[in-house]
Design a protein that fits this description.
The chain has 4 helices and 9 strands, in the order βαβββββββαααβ. The protein has 228 residues and is α+β, with helices and mostly antiparallel strands. It is elongated and about 65 Å long.
Amino acid sequence: MTVSAPTFTKCDKRKIDFDDYLSEAIKNAITQLDKPMEQYHLPSLEPLFVPLILPNVDMAPYSVSKFKNFKIFGHTKITDLKATMNFENKMLTIAITNPEMRYESDYETKSIMFFKLIDTSGAALVTTQNVTNMFTFTFEEYTRDNQDYLLVIDSKLEVAPQSVKIHFDNLFKDKILNEGFNRELSADWKKTFVHFGPIYFDNFAQAYGNVFNRFLEKVPLTDLFDGV
């Protein structure tokens, strides 16, 4: 038994302005996910929960950090959204701009900084302003119960914020030193973002792909698009 998609706008692949309709449909869908949609097995995106991000082995032995209980807020407030669907390559790109996104997590770290061992844990918060998330989803098509469905087989994410504020609680016992270090991280956020961003974004991309697949397994291709 399949579930139709009355909550989501169905787009006609044959229309010349298909991508414009698709962009509006996706924006409409995401803004509804401030609460779960149980009929599609979709969780709320406020927040999106990512249980664990493991250390990057390339950083050992100088730094080993583990982040868990990631909560990402800000998905459903959208400034701009542009989507493009390539049916031949089965690839969807979506650029979403949000006024603010917050990434809350718990961290554990063992690092060497200026010959000093840092062995601590606490809460972490990263806040991005006017941030554009560029998603690339690659699909494969399969048939179930005589109906065709899409499955996300690869997800990529690039993040381009206008500004970033970073804060780690309890990184140093000295509160003045801790706050000063956080200010420096935030002031020089671009270097920090380039270095550490890919560690997070690959994990986030997979999490978004998993959420997308929850929807796609419920809705056949003909309920998503006309003209397929």
